[in-house]
Amino acid sequence: MTLILDSTEIKNCVKFNEDLIPIIEDAFKSLSLGKTVMPPILRVDIEKYHGESDVKAAYIEGLDSFAVKVASGFFNNSKLGLPSSNGLMILLDSKTGVIKSVLLDKGYLTDVRTAIAGAIASKYLSKPTSSSVAIIGAGIQAELQLESLTLVRDIKNVNVWARDKSKAHAYIDNVSKKYNFKFNVHDNTEDLVKEVDILITTTPSKKPLIEYSSLPKGIHITAMGSDAEQKNELDPNIIQKCDVYVPDNQNQTMILGELNHALKKKLIPNDKIYNDLGKIIINPELGRKNNDDITVADLTGTGVQDTAIARYAYEIALNKKLGKNVD
Amino acid sequence: MTLILDSTEIKNCVKFNEDLIPIIEDAFKSLSLGKTVMPPILRVDIEKYHGESDVKAAYIEGLDSFAVKVASGFFNNSKLGLPSSNGLMILLDSKTGVIKSVLLDKGYLTDVRTAIAGAIASKYLSKPTSSSVAIIGAGIQAELQLESLTLVRDIKNVNVWARDKSKAHAYIDNVSKKYNFKFNVHDNTEDLVKEVDILITTTPSKKPLIEYSSLPKGIHITAMGSDAEQKNELDPNIIQKCDVYVPDNQNQTMILGELNHALKKKLIPNDKIYNDLGKIIINPELGRKNNDDITVADLTGTGVQDTAIARYAYEIALNKKLGKNVD
Question: What residue ranges define each of the domains in chain B, with the CATH number in brackets?
Answer without folding.
Answer: 2-109+304-326 (3.30.1780.10), 118-301 (3.40.50.720)
